[in-house]
Amino acid sequence: MDKNAGFDLSGKTALVTGGGSGLGFAISKILIQSGARVIIIGRQEAKLAEACEKLGSQCSYKVFDLSAVEKIKWFVETLEAENGPLDVLVNNAGIHLKKDTLSVSDEEYQRVIRINQQAVFALTREVSVKMVERQAGCVIMISSMASQYGLPKVIAYTAAKSAVEGMTRALAVELSPLGVRVNCVAPGFIATDMSAGALNNDKERMARVLTRTPIGRLGEPDDIGYAVTYLASEAARYVTGVVLPVDGGNSIGF
Predict the structure, then answer these.
(1) Residue 218 · residue 194 · CB < 8 Å
(2) Could you tell me which residues come within 8 angstroms of residue 236 by beta carbon, excluding any fewer than 6 positions away?
(3) pLDDT digits (tens, 9 = 90+) for 204-241
(4) d(Cα 43, Cα 66) in Å, to the nearest integer?
(5) Quick check: is 175 in a domain?
(6) Is the whole-model pTM more than 0.90?
(7) Which residues are known catalytic residues?
(8) For residues 236 and 107, what is the distance between their CA atoms, to the nearest angstrom?
(9) Across the chain, which distance is largest between two alpha carbons, in Å?
(10) pLDDT for residue 196
(11) Do 146 and 154 contact (CB within 8 A), yes or no?
(12) Helices in the chain by DSSP H: which ranges?
């Protein structure tokens, strides 16, 4: 028996939102390495095309703006008509807003919620309708340490990601009896271009991060990819409703 058979995603098709860069690109890469065919979506065609070229023939892309929530049902139907059934959905795309809470406008707050929470639900609902018909599928949310801690200046992002974790548990209870597992990965401090750049320019903050991270270093984007691939695979067939911190122990560090 192949000792890696439980992690083999050959024959599976995964949709990764925001797959053109950062964590989404790393997630897509590891899914492809495990045998999956991956469709990445985003707003910028040039970025998606470049990512697909790097990821190889198992990757394709579709340009779509998730803020157009009213078009998500049409998008999912079109995507499956063109590519066949989706086996895995990874809700990775999101936007950020760093601003003092008392200065955040209603419009700014609503925009973050629309992309990071409302669109995540709408896409999950429409994909899950198809998965339930087949009694098979897997949905993986990407949360954030902002939902675990009280972080300043990210009130809208924190609210949205906290909702995503709550949705993970509620959806798992409803959908798992129908054949669809729902789980969530909560990344810690990961060395993406954006986060590593910010920390490298703030030595005091970097020291605080590393001091309370038992593993003693920043995570790599591939670490999130491996966690997502595990949850998408048969190796996690009895796992649902879980919020998995991938943070080097930061959330339990002292």
Answers:
(1) no
(2) 181, 183, 230
(3) 888 888 899 999 999 999 999 999 999 999 999 999 99
(4) 8
(5) yes
(6) yes
(7) 157
(8) 39
(9) 59
(10) 66
(11) yes
(12) 22-33, 45-55, 72-83, 106-113, 119-134, 155-175, 193-200, 203-211, 221-232
